[in-house]
Design goal:
Chain lengths: ~110, ~500
């Protein structure tokens, strides 16, 4: 316990990688298990942001260049654009199907 | 610095023209509310002009915008291919009743097509990880919207939702892989990644995870098994013109980026290395075998499932999955012969696949149906269209004397040269399976009587001219393919690869 607390007090690259790994797994889990389209989109946001944490952590601790931070800014913009389009599509789905449950939207199938 | 940017801009003309045309198309839609016919013409003009500037770039090989994008024969080949496809799609859209029935929003449609083309151009030339992600996202985001363009149709909006969820997830996974790769190598461009792996060495397991995650992104774009689930639904639900565009150009852009990434990142460019051997820097796992397995799965699943399909768009969707499998055989080899074979196949695939979708669109315009039964007796109701369809389907199967045969021939030759005999055999067997479902359509057209309506279907002269313009290359490249092969062989040169 004492060791763990000491480890927590000195954040390094591993702390951030662990955090991003957890966020990434939560995101993938949300995409796979959630039925509500909005929840699926939130899972995707988690995945994008876990990649962002990676970029910034590597940029700060390991590579010594600012490339990672620049990429992270671009990814934030990208996530915003994606969210805008995704929500428009979900709204359209709601108008056509009266539901946003991805399991019930299955007109197209073999 | 300023000089460099100006120099880069002069090499960026095809894309600049597209952006200009995009802005003009949006403006014209706002200003001329009464005349909706202007935006399509701007789109067509812009695409022709940018295609002209693409041909001007022939033979150039340089990096622009401080190593974000390269202009090299390989990129120029794919830009040419994508540009031609985009022009044909705009022409198709003029005759598509699906698209023309939404007159109020037609300006949006054509501006989005321009944006999609721009994204694919950037994908063909991107060498920086950030540029790759941005290009993929530009392509994906616009294609989500276009897949759901006929938004009143539930099918279309379902297609766009499925496309968006799969697409966003796989780009998310790819981005995570890229972030790991950046951490491992400290570089953001593929040449730096190559040098870092070759000189410093990296942790093999971590590299493996990163490359697998990146492969997910590529696999989604080219609809390879097991990342293909979106393909049939999206291809069935989206408007036919968009389906045709995605099945050719989007796949081409995905292949361009994937081939460039694997070929440049993982060959040995160190002095005394072997630049002819591919995949050498990815140790521990034999990557060409993994790609070979993906290729076999992709073509086998595509062909076997296509046998059961009754909707023509869905059938062609599975057939396009199978074709991605054939082309992946060239990626397995990745030698000069292998890449040239993929390029030849793409050029051929452009005409035959667009042709097949064009026929489906023409018939759906008149009959309102896409299922295989509505093709009964088409051979008597409209002989020209039916015969053209036969030519496209024979070419898709890969039988002589059509261009599809030449495409397969060069792929198999590259495989034999690289001692991948078993893969070539699987590919040939798959072509036999594909013959079955293509012939099913032919049988319906010529040997079955139409159910109710026996009246001839009339098409306008302009529609027939576009059709003939697709039939001619499909046959011509089957008989006289030397220029095609020369073009492909000249186009395998990538910037930075000896």
């Amino acid at each position: 316990m004492q060791d763990f607390l000491q480890w927590l007090q000195q954040p390094g690259l591993n702390h951030f990688l662990l955090l991003s790994g957890i966020l990434f797994s939560l995101g993938v889990f949300a995409v796979i298990s959630r039925k509500n389209a909005i929840m699926v989109l939130m899972g995707i946001e988690l995945i994008l942001n876990s990649a962002n944490i990676n970029f910034i952590a590597f940029s700060r601790f390991s590579t010594g260049t600012f490339d990672g931070q620049v990429i992270a800014i671009f990814v934030i913009i990208l996530a915003a654009a994606e969210a805008a389009i995704a929500l428009a599509i979900v709204l359209n789905i709601y108008q056509n199907f009266n539901t946003v449950n991805v399991d019930e939207i299955n007109q197209l199938r073999d | 610095m300023v000089e460099q940017i100006l120099e880069s801009l002069s090499r960026f003309l095809p894309e600049t023209v597209l952006v200009g045309a995009l802005c003009l198309a949006i403006l014209s839609d706002l200003v001329f509310r009464q005349n909706r016919g202007i935006a399509p013409l701007i789109a067509l003009g812009g695409l022709f002009l940018s295609l002209y500037y693409v041909t001007e770039q022939a033979g150039v090989s340089q990096q622009i915008f401080s190593g974000m994008i390269v202009v090299d024969p390989f990129a120029v080949f794919f830009k040419f291919l994508i540009g031609v496809t985009a022009i044909l799609i705009v022409l198709f859209s003029f005759y598509s009743s699906e698209v023309q029935s939404t007159q109020k929003r037609i300006g949006e449609y054509f501006s989005l097509i321009l944006a999609l083309t721009l994204g694919m151009y950037l994908m063909a030339g991107a060498v920086n990880l950030l540029m790759m992600v941005l290009a993929i996202e530009l392509t994906s985001l616009t294609s989500y919207i276009l897949a759901g363009y006929t938004r009143e149709a539930p099918d279309s909006s379902e297609a766009s939702l499925k496309y968006m969820i799969y697409g966003a997830l796989s780009t998310g996974l790819m981005l995570y892989g890229i972030s790991i790769l950046y951490g491992l190598t400290g570089a953001t461009d593929i040449y730096g990644i190559n040098a870092s792996i070759a000189y410093n060495g990296v942790n093999e397991v971590t590299l493996l995870i990163a490359v697998i995650l990146i492969l997910v992104g590529f696999g989604y774009k080219i609809s390879a098994v097991p990342f293909h689930f979106w393909t049939p639904d999206v291809y069935e639900g989206a408007p036919v013109t968009i389906t045709a565009f995605l099945s050719v150009a989007s796949k081409a852009a995905g292949f361009a980026m994937m081939i460039r990434f694997f070929r440049v990142s993982f060959i040995d460019l160190t002095p005394g290395g072997f630049p002819d051997e591919m995949w050498v820097l990815l140790q521990g796992i034999e990557w060409n075998k993994i790609v070979a397995i993906i290729s076999v799965l992709t073509m086998t699943l595509g062909n076997l499932v296509a046998v059961w399909q009754d909707n023509l768009k869905r059938l062609l969707a599975y057939s396009s999955i199978a074709h991605a499998g054939y082309m992946l055989m060239g990626v397995v080899v990745l030698s000069n012969a292998g890449v040239a074979a993929v390029l030849i196949y793409f050029m051929v695939y452009l005409f035959m696949n667009l042709g097949a979708f064009y026929v489906v669109m023409l018939v759906a315009n008149k009959t309102g149906k896409e299922d295989i039964d509505s093709y009964k007796g088409l051979g008597y109701r409209s002989p020209i269209v039916a015969v053209s369809f036969v030519i496209f389907l024979i070419s898709l199967t890969g039988l002589p004397p059509t261009a599809g045969f030449i495409g397969k021939l060069y792929l198999f030759a590259a495989l034999f040269e690289a001692k991948w005999i078993w893969l070539a055999v699987v590919g040939a067997l798959n072509s036999v399976v594909s013959l079955y479902y293509y012939v099913r359509v032919l049988r319906n057209m010529f040997l079955r009587d139409p159910a109710e309506d026996k009246s001839p279907i009339e098409f306008s002269t302009a529609q027939i001219v576009v059709l003939i313009a697709l039939v001619i290359p499909t046959i011509l490249f089957g008989l006289y393919f030397a220029p095609l092969v020369d073009f492909a062989n000249a186009s395998i040169v990538m910037f930075g690869v000896r």
